[in-house]
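README: folding subset

This subset contains proteins for which both the sequence and a predicted structure token string are available. Records are stored as plain text. Below is the entry for CopG family transcriptional regulator (91 residues), shown exactly as it appears on disk.
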Amino acid sequence: MNIKTTVTLSERNLRYAEKMVEEGAYPSLSDLVEASIEQMILNTRSSDDAVSDMADEIRKRLELPRDQWVKWDGKKLLDNIKSRLATDGER
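--- output ---
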């Protein structure tokens, strides 16, 4: 859920942000601000918090349109795992 808000930026920061958008680094100022906040969140979280990172990744992927989801083939996955285990066991 997105919530509209207003922020005040220094002239320098606004010019830089607008330049990043104009150069195509971000589609909009909102996307730039959101990406910056996400980066701050990642930087402050413990790097060994794998479960939390996985949950974030799952949430992010669930926001994708269904046509971008990777098809699940449990049998193929199991066959790949068995094959890798057999290969590793031969070493």
